[in-house]
Amino acid sequence: MLQRLSEYISSLESVLICYSGGTDSSLLLKVCSMIPEIRAEAVFFDSIVVPRADMAHAVELARHIAVPLTVLQKNILAVPGLKMNPQHRCSLCTQHLLRRAI
Questions:
Q1: Closest Cα to residue 67, out of 58, 78, 56, 54?
Q2: Residue 6: predicted pLDDT
Q3: pTM of the predicted protein model
């Protein structure tokens, strides 16, 4: 599985990783860092809902993996509809952040 992921990433010119510091995005960050011909960058969206310890851990891990990381401040509570706390709030937030990343 990792081999297929590496092959796919190698076929790209560059990769922008919406990085949370979680398992999935950390693995992706690490795989990208191991492919010298790929230009990889990560973006971490910081907001009031992100615990400080989680952000510090994510920033430190990205530094250790050695992929350039940009931390962007985002008022996530300004995402339309999010304050109503709908069941699909994660999808609302993710779609909003992805549009801001690119």
A1: 58
A2: 93
A3: 0.79
49 phi-psi bin (left φ>0, alpha ψ -120 to 50, beta other): alpha
Q: Which residues pair with 45 in a beta bridge?
A: 72
pLDDT tens digit sequence for 2-32: 899 999 999 999 999 989 899 999 999 999 9
Angle at 89 between CA 87 and CA 90, to 5 degrees: 115
Q: How far apart are CA 95 and CA 79, in angstroms?
A: 10
Q: Residue 18 carries which side chain, given as an amino acid letter?
A: C
Q: What size, in residues, is the chain?
A: 102
The C-alpha angle with vertex 43 and arms to 83 and 96, in degrees rounded to 5, equals: 30
> Tell me: the pLDDT tens digits for 37-82?
999 999 998 988 889 999 999 999 999 999 999 998 888 778 787 7
